[in-house]
Amino acid sequence: MIRVGVVGASGYAGGELLRLLLSHPQVEVTQATSESSAGKYLYQLHPHLRGRTTLRFVGQAGLTPCDLLFLALPHGEAQARIAEYAALAPRLIDLSADFRLRDAAVYAAAYGEPHRAPEWLPRFVYGLPEINRAALIGADKASGVGCNATATILALWALIRAGMLPLDQPIIVDLKVGSSEAGRTPTESSHHPARSGVVRPFALTGHRHEAEVRQAFADCGALDVRMAITSVELVRGAAAAAHVTLPTGLAEKDIWAAYRSAFSAKPFVRIVHEKSGVFRHPEPRVVAGTNYADVGWEYDPETGRAVLLCAIDNLGKGAAGSAVQCMNLMCGFDETDGLTFGGFYP
Question: What's the CA dihedral at 218, 224, 230, 236 to 10 degrees?
Fold first, then answer.
């Protein structure tokens, strides 16, 4: 058993972390912070935790040493106090964007301000296990993942890695997202639209998560990826549709082979490409509450036009689920511990 704490536990990502950790066979949650709700029971902000814990929120001044700290703070806050958190726990997992990008200049360009602890950036392993599993095993620091970046990376991963997707083209990614991307207090913003139908259009400056996607494929060459995000009538979920042009004349079996090669050893990626039925393609409602990513495609062999698909729960695989999966790899637990909930239907 390890003792873990969650800093910034009052938000949606913090609540999802607590839900997963309270059922984890190798974990004891010892503390959860909230400055505005210190003294309140966790279930007073996260009603789904009623009856599962009697822990109360504490302020950050009340943090005590533990084995691992999850940082679920708003972007920009973890980097300001990272040395303090590192002194409290030998392992850190930060869910914000603060340590996702390895290059401080890239961070400044994407987030519009200089990084306040650039010397810490190389110490964090990018926390998407599906592409970084080996580096996460035994690591002591992992970053979070961007939900939209996660869906985009996994949509593109199989065919880029197989060399089947030419990179001398703009890759247009249309993302439909749930309102929880805006956080506990939804506000319309350029990067996380809170209202249904709000679109974040293409722009020269790009979406912040584009830098994360380019970093994931940096060893493949320059990637021209452009994101457009629309909030739809959904609370949880992110569905990516990457519009690309593939070589003409590819056989279905060749595409299947690329996807199986990429994902057969990934316990939380499911290939969804059916010829009939209601759910022939990835659907975010099917993965709600889970750590699964469903991937698939549509392809016209005559023109080469294709759509590469991925559906995730933005609070699960796009945030807390991946963070817990990172913890499992860092601590030597089974990679699937605490994450086997398979969703619900209908």
Answer: -20
Catalytic option among 147, 310, 326, 331 = 147
Q: Which two structure tokens, joined as six digits, stand for 261?
A: 């090669």
State the CB neighbour count (10 A cutoff) for residue 153: 25
Token couple for 321: 């689920």
Q: Which domains does the chain have, with CATH numbers?
A: 2-124 (3.40.50.720), 147-314 (3.30.360.10)
Residue 147 is a catalytic residue: yes
Residue spans of alpha helices (H) in 50-163: 77-80, 82-88, 104-111, 129-136, 147-161
**What pLDDT score does 185 carry?**
61
CA distance 130 to 146: 14
pLDDT of residue 278: 87
Extract the tokens encoding 82: 């990272």
State pLDDT tens for residues 183-225. 876 444 444 444 445 544 444 446 899 999 999 999 998 899 9
Instruction: At 135, list the tokens.
Output: 């580096």
Q: In the numeric block, which tokens belong to residue 323?
A: 């963070």
Exposed / middle / buried, residue 269 (Cβ in 10 Å: 0-12, 13-18, 19+)? buried
pLDDT of 23 over the 70 cut: yes
